[in-house]
Amino acid sequence: MQVWHRVVAVVVTRIFLGLSLLLVWQFVQTAAAAVLPEDRADVMYHSYNGGGVEVTGPSILLRKSFAKNFSGSYNYYVDNVSSASIDVLSQASPYTEVRKENSVNLDYLHDKTVMSAGFTASRENDYDANTSFFSLTQNMFGDLTTVTLGYSRGSNIVKNNNDPSFEATADMRSYRLSLSQVLTKDLLLGFAYEAIADEGYLNNPYRSVRYVDSSVPAGYAWQPEVYPQTRTSNAAAIRLNYYLPYRASVYGGYRYFDDTWGIGANTYSIGYIQPYGSNWLFDINYRYYNQNNADFYSDLFPYYDAQNFLARDKELSTYSSHQLGIGVTYMFAKNGFGFIKSGSANFYYNYMYFNYEDFRNVLDSTPATVGDEPLYTMSANVLRMFVSLWF
Amino acid sequence: MMQRVVFTVVVLGLLSACSVEPWVKPYERAHLADPIMNPDRDPVSSAYLNHVHDAREGAKGAGLASGGGCGCN
After folding, report:
1. ipTM confidence score
2. Which of A164, A177, A179, A366 is the most buried (most CB within 10 A)?
């Protein structure tokens, strides 16, 4: 497995280097237009409520161009978490915490190339994450094709509020290639591939796995989970956007995922956007996700320390989820108002339903033998309300 | 395998330097420029939904860029 990791890492790095050199060459060769993102400000309130977990908070983005060829952005994001999830209720006590994230981003435009770099710092009382990225975007083939190469690197510090002496690190490297292709005057194709390598302490210090223990009344006991120290994953996604014969659009996408932990996943999505008058947009969409479990996942291990690696995280189990989303956008000040060019007010709602196939609800009071409890299901309501201003 | 990849990359690179006659002319791109055709119309909003998916699903990557943080449990 380790050798395979290295071979993949070397091949990906070489392909990446080759493509980077080509893009730099393109950068020297070509002239004419690419564009920087528009100047805008967004203020959003977000809310997630499901499975006993409530997460709410603001997200504020400010993006402004300067000195002709530069655009900078700043994003402030907060998650106010209140958790009484099934893991928390079965293994610990409900808790609340706050996660704050600050991101800065700089884009530089030169002819047909945009170079971007950014840094994100996320802080919570038991997890610090610093992520930096660099990307190169190039327009080519008469501006019908846009290619982006991106590299990002994350350094995380994992702590444990129940054990002040505990501190571990986890590092992440991501290589990304994406492509946007104009196929016809009504059809747009998007493709993305990303390889991610994680290394370090990758489990959750609070979570445990359960194993059969006939010496206790419950019939099972808990021990801390143990994950491998490395994980390499591959994801490839394709997306099509089609402009209908009247003013409306449909879009659909598929993503394939696999990793060295044995997880394989498929994501399918489809959506429809219908304008109404000149001020309204309505969006309806559906997303289906499924995955199979990690090699070292089990809802119930046969005994203590049953194997080297142990996981009982429901996100590593076999499950599927359905998501239905609706959105409404109202555009205002379309002809400008003061220094504002235009604005929009938006409301998006998503309903998610998760159906776990090998994660059991140990809180269910239905009389059952150990390992025969009903399977867990949960639903979540996700809200996004935001105002955007372009200036 | 590696030679094939390098060959493909080089051929693509050489092709990309050709002056291709765009089959969709600039004046034919009104539909493509319509906001309803932009997959990432509102980056703050799509980054958030991406973050929710990352926290609830084992799969990750090949979506929109997102930062760190745990969002566990």
Report:
1. 0.90
2. A177
